[in-house]
Amino acid sequence: MGEKRSQEGSQNRQLRGWKEIALSLGKDESTVKRWALDRGLPIHRVPGQKRASVYAWTDEINDWLTSRRREGGLQASLSTEPLGLAEFSLPGAKPGPQPRIWSARATAGGIILAALAMFGAASLMFRPAPDAAPSAYRSSDLVQDLYLEGVYLYRKRSPETLDQAADRFRRAIMLDPAFAPARASLAVTYNLMVEYGLIGAEAGYAQAGKEAQAALRINPQSPEALAVLGDIAFFQAKQYEKGLAYFDSAVRADAANALSRQWYAAALQSVGRYGEALRQIDAAQRLDATSRSIRVSKAIILLAKGDIDAAEAILKQLVAHEPGYRSPYRFLALAALARQDTGAYLSAWRERFNLTGDPIGSRIIEAGQSAYLEHGDTAMARAMARKAGEQAADVEPYFLAHVQALAGETESAARQLASIDTRHAFYYGFDPAFRMARRDPAFVEKIRAARLPVLP
């Protein structure tokens, strides 16, 4: 059972279980599992068992090592008399200390195992070839279930479901630290938690970056992890070219990943590249037609481009079908302001603050409503800014900048924008409240000093 002959006549032995496979390769079990998951290490599973046992054939591993050596990744070989492994390295890496040879004999099965111990340096990763064989490794059913549940929850994009999603991904990672999809999705979730105000930007982006880097150490072509790093570089660090390069890499790694295309589109729109942004968001929508957040992103791009009617049509359709979804109402307010429909503008903000449970925001809108009914638009804007100033520390950060700009307090609005370290600060580029401010050289200079994109 444990032996068969290869076509060349050499002995081809079966290695049973992760421990034996890992010993043959001179690595720990978690590394071997990672290679199986992301690098196509040929692993087989015994069917019909509740907890599937794994096994491998030495000839297949030899072939895999040979192909990796040709690609310039693994410098390795595995023989059958005895088994052996040389160094795992990247081209140009400095050689480590010479490994020692281990050997063992099992008299019952007549199996001879030997392996070279790897040098004790940090793990070196290589990029899989585009035509690498698909991995035979699959994590446990429990890990898979936790991961899939987490993805479902973070895509709901509510404060409650984001927190629940993070919990599922953390549990999956505890059970299988080498399961890259859970780490990448946890990075996405931390990023969204910052956007939804559940955690501070500094701590949240740090956690998101940490998990994204961990995912990339396992799978250097994880599109979600690359997109998270792109989002952090672009919107937090304001390193625009670096961020766009990350997004481009994410799309190249997996052209069918809707999230990376959606976030790429948001970045392109934020620097005024509307045509490219629409191409990316249209591709994202084709990949995930049921995503409501992608539809909101498309409406934002259309707003920024000046196509108010098309943007509003998308947003109104969303709230008609999902009245409890809070995200569209902010942009419905901006669309109404662009059309100078003050009633619709106030109504959209009122609905948003009802859904977010924000009594301060609601009181600001009430003050604006009263002033508008008595004295008109200008009085409304001033009343809202005055009310917001009374509790400025507790007002939603971007909404404070918005009402300040609407009231003509451009210097205060510029300072407020500079203090926002999330993507919300970038809304100023298409917000009608900033229309006059964007033409003011003093305001533009402050925006430039804050390293925000200067848009007309």
Output the keywords.
6% strand; 6 strands; 59% helix; disordered N terminus; four-stranded antiparallel sheet; 456 residues; two-stranded antiparallel sheet; mainly alpha
Structure description:
This protein has a four-stranded antiparallel beta sheet with strand order 1-2-4-3. The chain has a two-stranded antiparallel sheet with strand order 5-6. With 456 residues, the protein is mainly alpha-helical. The chain contains 20 helices and six strands. The relative contact order is 0.05.
What's this, in brief?
The protein has 456 residues and is mainly alpha-helical. 59% of the residues lie in helices and 6% in strands.
Itemize the secondary structure elements and their pairings.
Elements: E1 3-5, E2 11-16, H1 17-25, H2 29-38, E3 44-45, E4 54-57, H3 58-70, E5 101-106, E6 111-116, H4 141-156, H5 159-175, H6 180-195, H7 201-218, H8 223-236, H9 240-253, H10 258-270, H11 274-287, H12 292-305, H13 308-321, H14 327-338, H15 342-356, H16 359-375, H17 377-390, H18 397-406, H19 410-419, H20 441-449
Antiparallel strand pairs: 1-2, 2-4, 3-4, 5-6
